[in-house]
Amino acid sequence: MLTQTARADIVIIVNPDSPLAELNQQNVSDLYLGRTRAIHGAERFLILDQPRDSDLRSRFFAQLNGMSLRSVNAYWARLQFSGDSQPPIPLSDSKSVVETVRHNRLAIGYIDAAAVTNDVRPILTLRK
Hints:
It is a single chain. The two termini are 13 Å apart. This protein has helices at 2-8, 25-32, 55-65, 69-82, 94-103; strands at 10-14, 46-49, 89-90, 107-112, 121-126. The protein has a five-stranded mixed beta sheet, sandwiched between helices. By secondary structure, it is α/β, with parallel strands linked by helices. It is built from five helices and five strands; from the N terminus they run αβαβααβαββ.
């Protein structure tokens, strides 16, 4: 049972040298909805996403702020159409997110808890 719970957890990760010491759920929501690109006076972050229609992305937004993928995709379509903001950068999978975060001190991403490695620093866990 612990394994199922751990598998449902989603971990927000940063580079070990990231200027971020902590993030709360509202900070992460603001980053992923384009409301901000910097937190606590830090530099602008490279916001990484999972594939557009992935189960992990669906669970992430549901656990983060209760939004469905349909709502998130519509939200970003409106923002992009108006030219106000660009969505997070989608990568192919959690391994790609870990690699990108590992090589960029200003990158932030989310992955399934089982994909966390010593190359990144977990900064927040969304528990199911």
